Amino acid sequence: MLTSEVFGLIMDHDPNLVFIKDANSIVLYANRACLECYPPERRASIVGSTGLEDFPREEAALRLAEDRRAFALGESEATTTGVDYLGRCRVLLTRKRAFMTADGEQRLLGISTDITELSEREASLVRINDQLSRFTAFAAHDLRSPLASIVSALNVIRHDRQTKLGPNASDYIELATASAMSMAQQVTALLSVSRAEHRQDVRMVETDLNVLVEEARSNLSALIAQTESYILASRLPTLRVEPDLFRQLIQNLIENGIRHRADRAPQIAIRYEQAGSEHMLSVEDNGTGVAAQDAERLFQPFEQGSRTKGGSGLGLSLCRRVVSLHGGSLAVDPTYVGGCRVVVRLPEALGTVSMAAA
């Protein structure tokens, strides 16, 4: 059993601020870290006072109210930001828990953890992420014009009767055109997601998902015909989604299944079910499948794992970002055999299921 001396030694070397108060918020105990928050001349008088006598009246009132809340509810948690007597800005996460002594008296245990460094890192990450997102938007915007020029120039060459081309030139032009158009679509998707992330509100409207599937099919018609792909879509619901982003999500998932085909014609199945309190959509293909070690890495930008048949490596990364903007999750089903199955889970709040005719 710990002696009071050992307990005191432990507490005085604990970097957390530990204190105990009575029912009137009078400090009965404060460890060294807690006392060192106060000017040296005040430390001897903290025990036996509220410790708030030198605080601005409004701040002291807020802290006392938090004590009363902890006594009433049994516990509380709050983050405070303030400047200490040395002029340092400190962010503290304080957890308080009420308890009764053996004599039946109310007490409040408080433990404050200094999260200043963590808070600064989080703020820095937010700034960096915002800068990266804005850079992505600018880069995507600037790439659209040259890509359009490339496609236009290739079309001129292809249809110019005075241009003499070798026997394989037409095939190369078709390939270059398809690649440029695919990149343009990815750039457009990247720009759409970047813009959406900087909007206060994503424009959610009731949308027939069957219509979005047909629009995605139309956009991919050349690729579908070229690869002799078969697309099967079950009846899908009407949900509140951002139509442009959700169309791009469906299109990317279909294209992902086609591009990563095996040595047979691609078969893509789009299915829906209501799983408990979630809407669940899945896109299945009969392609090369996904190795277990690649399942999560596929969602990183420019990563394709072992599925490296075309594409920019942005598709699934963009898909996850779109689903995240809708409050959902997206993952590869590790148990699926015979290809790949991507599962999209969306919150029930996106709408009551309304099944439209396919």
UniProtKB/TrEMBL annotation:
SUPFAM superfamilies: ATPase domain of HSP90 chaperone/DNA topoisomerase II/histidine kinase (SSF55874), Homodimeric domain of signal transducing histidine kinase (SSF47384), PYP-like sensor domain (PAS domain) (SSF55785)
UniProt protein name: histidine kinase
Organism: Plantimonas leprariae
Gene Ontology MF annotations: phosphorelay response regulator activity; phosphorelay sensor kinase activity; protein kinase activator activity
EC number: 2.7.13.3
Transferase in keyword set: yes
InterPro entries: BphY/WalK/GraS-like, HATPase_C_sf, HATPase_dom, His_kinase_dom, HisK_dim/P_dom, HisK_dim/P_sf, PAS-like_dom_sf, PAS_4
Catalytic function, reaction form: ATP + protein L-histidine = ADP + protein N-phospho-L-histidine
Domain Histidine kinase stretches: 138-350
Enzyme type, top EC level: transferase
GO annotation, biological process: osmosensory signaling via phosphorelay pathway
Coiled-coil regions listed in the entry: none
CDD domains: HATPase, HisKA
Domain of life: Bacteria
One Pfam match: HisKA
Keywords, sorted A to Z: Kinase, Phosphoprotein, Transferase
